[in-house]
């Protein structure tokens, strides 16, 4: 009863402003989706205030929605900045985020020229995910052979992609072998060198005797969208011919990928 009037029928469940609970729920979902797209479209992780301004949402609404999205691992908060979380990224197969008909010929050409295992890799939190690999007959077995994943800090591709991240490493550096980097100070020194040289190496850090070198594949904004790596016995890392061929292939692959990719990640995601 309100003001002496008793509501009956459908209007009895309406809030005082006349808006049905269903429309209120739809509006909340619309705001959450808008906020997720704002996070996805940003080149770098954004703060709460930046997300509120770009999405057009009130700061209190943005804070509340981010809390819910973070609780469900749809976004991650790192150093007071937000990026897409592993659960949302996991809904999309990494292999479908880059066009295989574009990149695969480059991987095959590099393998034929070096007779090494060739990998195209992306970063997912503290791990790398291999989008594709072309194996040689003399490959060295690795724990990632059956999972397509490996800890980022003990692989050349992982260290390369971490070096270009805007946020610092904030996870444990577990030892896979005696050569694995396990301290943030040692990792930071390597990352500085990677940024200067534009190439990363790993020598027996994931598997004994396994050596890898990796260089970036650059997208439209000239930021790395993946790492191109070759792997074999660690003695191959001293071959300048292999390094030059790897860099040339990454350059041509970057050009092909920029021509093929959509300008915004959400446009590419909408194709799936």
Provide structural commentary:
The chain has 272 residues and is α+β, with helices and mostly antiparallel strands. It has two domains: 21-90, Orthogonal Bundle (Arc Repressor Mutant, subunit A); 94-269, Beta-Lactamase. The chain is built from nine helices and eight strands. The strands form two sheets. It has a six-stranded antiparallel sheet with strand order 5-4-3-8-7-6, with helices on both faces. Mean pLDDT is 83; it is low at 1-19 and 263-272.
Q: What is the topology?
A:
Elements: H1 21-41, H2 48-55, H3 59-71, E1 75-78, E2 81-84, H4 86-90, H5 100-114, E3 117-124, E4 127-134, E5 149-151, H6 156-163, H7 184-197, E6 200-203, E7 210-218, E8 224-233, H8 240-260, H9 265-269
Antiparallel strand pairs: 1-2, 3-4, 3-8, 4-5, 6-7, 7-8
What attributes does this structure have?
272 residues, alpha+beta, 9 helices, two-stranded antiparallel sheet, disordered C terminus, disordered N terminus, Arc Repressor Mutant, subunit A
Helix-strand string: HHHEEHHEEEHHEEEHH
**Radius of gyration of CA atoms, rounded to a whole number:** 23 Å
Count of separate structural domains? 2
Q: Regions with pLDDT < 50 over 5+ consecutive residues?
A: 1-19, 263-272
Outline the biggest β-sheet: 6 strands, antiparallel
Helix content: 40-55%
CATH class of the largest domain: Alpha Beta
The CATH architecture designation of the largest domain is 2-Layer Sandwich
Q: Brief overview, please?
A:
This protein is an alpha+beta fold and 272 residues long. The protein contains nine helices and eight strands.
